[in-house]
Structure formats: C-alpha cells, structure tokens
Amino acid sequence: MKLAYSPNSPYVRKCVAAAILRGIDAQVELWTIGTTDPVLAASNPLSKVPTLITDDGMALYDSPVICEYLDSIGSAPPLFPAPGPARWKAKQQEAVGDGILDATQPRRRELALPLDDGRRDYIATQQAKVTRALDALEADAGSLGLLTTIGEVTIACALGYLDFRYANEPWRPGHPRLEAWYAKVAALPAMARTAPPA
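^ that's the sequence the OP posted. Answer follows.
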C-alpha cells in the first residue's frame, strides 16, 4: 500500500496512527507528494492527502475511508467497533475530532490574509466551533480510552494539531480531564511516532 503523505497533515497522522495500532504500518509506504502534483490528481480528483493506493490499485480517500479500510487488515483489535452503540459513539467522536480539524485548517489560511469584517466573522465562527467541541470532549473525557477506537485516535490527532499550529491559543485551561487523557495517549507509540516535526 502507498499513502500520499505530508508530515504536517493531521489527517495523514490519523491514518498512520491507525496503521500502527493495527500492527500493519510496515505494509504502508509513505509517499511524499504535493497536492498540486498531477500524479496525485490522477489518483484522487480532489488532489488531497491522505490518499491511499491499495495493493490492488484502488485509490481511497480521505481519512475516514482510509482508516476503515486499514481496520479491515491485520489481526489487532478493531478500531471500529461492531454495529451498535459503541460503534456510533466511536463515529461520533471521530466526527468531533475531524470537525475540530476542519475548523482549524482553513482558519490558519485566513489569518494570513487581510482581516476585513467578513474574514473576522469567519474566523470567530470557526473558533467557536472548536471551543464548543473542546467543552463537549471535556464533559465526555471519562469515556475516552487509550486509543482503542477511531474516535479516540481522531481526537488525539486534533488536540495534537491544536498544539502544533495554535500554541498561542492553549486549549488545556478549562479542560483538565481532557488534558489528563491527552497526556497519557500522546506518549503512546501511535502518537509519539507520528508527531509532526518541530
């Protein structure tokens, strides 16, 4: 398998962490390629990372689909629970983690542009989404395990991205239970080995 890769992408990090947790990371070749490269666009019309090229040549994108595919390989405990309440909880947590990332990545681009009223409103809207998501995760922190589901993996990647790109906006104040959980999972191999370069 070949994974279109950027070391700073939290969505790529989620996929690589999932492969590590599944014990199949040695089967995944990291393919460093720019999103403007026509070779990537030929595999994924959205021309985005992550894109996974499977051993039989199928192109999969993006991180929720790739992670579910990786979960079908290997013999480690699944990150996607069987159908039922536990699965919906994991998928809900995955959506919250991905939502934090979806709100923070474009905001970073906007901050580099002239800040007119429309752009300020947009940035404030995205910040409010992240604040609400962090508050919801704090309330739910007691249910989080040690990267046993795709939801927990995604949340950990989202918090790591906030540290990486928004260190000037610390998320830990007001979220002590989430902070304690993250301190435990950040030290686990799936997170430690995939941390973005300093």
